[in-house]
Amino acid sequence: MSAATVFSPRVILGWVAAVAATFALSIYLMAFGGGDTQRNAVGPSAYSRSAIGYAGLAELIARVGIPVVKGQGGDTGSAGQGDLLVLAEPPVSTAEEQGQFAFGKADRVLVILPKWQGYRSTSHSGWIEDAALLPTAVADLTIAKAGATGKTVRANSPAVWTTNTLGVAPLLDLTAQMIEDGNLRPIVAAGRRVLVGEKTDRTRRIWIVSDPDMLSNHGLLTGGNAEFAIRLINGLRPPQGRVVFDETVRGYRARSANPLTLMFQFPFITVTVQILAAAALLLWATMTRFGLPEPVSALLDAGKQGLIRNAANLLRYSGHPEIIVANYVRLTVRGVARQLRSPPGLDWRGLVDWLARVGIARGVAVDFPQLVRRAEDLATSKPENAATLVAVARDTHRWKREILNGP
Question: Rounded to a whole number, what is the distance in angstroms from the first to the last CA of the chain?
């Protein structure tokens, strides 16, 4: 009579199909569910690898040995005193006339003014399809929210920078975006038009970069822009300080470190659903049985006799008991030699000769050299009956007892 089943085949098939579909959906959502900011970002952020992004700048800074953090938590992305806070084209609204950016505890700040509006490509993930110039009023508002004054102008790129404390000339497009009529101290400028300027606010130093093209992905490796970028960062960064790209201004938020909270956040909630479904299935399968479980026959017998019988069965099941017995002899010989503190550096033959002399001195009755030869014969030829294996193992045990404890 067949045993009773808990579930009908139709129910089991339905559960298997549901679990497989849920698992496949969770894998898809984790891989392509939109949670990967590095893959989908196309704007001017440190995650974006589009032409107007700054992933290349962040990677360049990290490759020269400067610690880089892409902050996604707190008002200023976890930047503090001794760090350089980078606001790369922070988004602003032209309707915002008052208020300034929150720099938190950061005492060194680099603000890169906005210039381009990118449009996501429909055929390449992480690329832009086109870009258009933003109104200069957006850059002017960014200057004001950084605590400085000035007016953004776009003109032909100057042939010579009259002021350049960084020592490397950047290479810009034909039309450059610069600041004039402001209160910035020129770091890099052509006459009254400032490309990089400084605003000091008590103990905080704020540098404003008017044109992003020399630092964004599409222009970073043009001319000497990469060297210019590193000198720009090191010119403002405190000694041993980190470079923190504040990405909270773009809506990026770090996931909670609490595992209980993660369990109920997308896409991890799909795994939670699978665990709950498996628990429900297990509970359903066990609710039909009550009381103590039926005893199961022991796989191995207990006691000394059972232990000996089980060991013999295992030797027989292995198919090569002669190799096992030969290894037992070798291990026993080496174990006895360690206990008797044999001279160091002896090879196998030297160890056998030394133990033979010790055995003679201690009155051991077992012919030890003959025992070793019998064991070596076992390793190279299969005996005709099990009595030979038992005799070798018995004599080995007897030799060990006599040479250690006396005859």
Answer: 62
Q: What is the token pair recorded at 156?
A: 């032909």
The answer on 91 and 212 residing in a single domain is: yes
Secondary structure in 3-state letters for 184-219: CEEEEEECCEEEEEEEEECCEEEEEECCHHHCCCCC
Say whether pLDDT at 332 is over 70. Answer: yes
Where a domain ends, among 206, 223, 250? 250
Q: For residue 66, what pLDDT is reported?
A: 94
- Residue 181 three-state SS: coil
| C-alpha to C-alpha distances, 260 to 268, 269, 277, 314, nearest whole angstrom | 11, 10, 18, 48
Query: Residue 72 and residue 78: Cα distance in Å, rounded?
Result: 8
Give residue 384's domain range.
303-405
Query: Where do we find the tokens 């822009």?
Result: 225
pLDDT digits (tens, 9 = 90+) for 255-303: 555 555 656 666 667 777 778 877 777 777 666 655 556 666 666 556 6
**What's phi and psi for 245, nearest 5 deg?**
-85, 115
Last residue of a domain, one of 207, 235, 250: 250
| Beta strands, E only, 267-327 | none
Residue scoring higher pLDDT (404 or 137): 137
**Does residue 346 carry a pLDDT above 50?**
yes
Q: Do 218 and 312 have their domain in common?
A: no
77-89 per-position pLDDT tens digit: 467 788 999 999 9
| DSSP conformational letter for 302 | -
- The span from the CA of 65 to the CA of 315, in Å, is 61
Count of Cβ atoms closer than 10 Å to residue 24 Cβ? 10
Which DSSP state fits 54? -
Nearest Cα neighbor of 138 from 149, 152, 148 is 152
265 lies in a domain? no
For 39, the 3-state DSSP assignment is: helix
Q: Is residue 347 part of a domain?
A: yes
Closest of 268, 248, 249 to residue 258, by C-alpha: 268
328 CA to centre of own chain: 46
Q: Give me the sign of the Cα torsion angle 235, 237, 238, 240.
A: negative
Backbone angles phi, psi at 119, to 5 degrees: -120, 125
Could you give the CA distance from residue 106 to residue 91 in angstroms, rounded to a whole number? 19
Reduce the DSSP state of residue 234 to 3 states and report it.
helix
Q: Are the C-beta atoms of 52 and 130 separated by less than 8 Å?
A: no
**Which residue shows structure tokens 């699978």?**
274
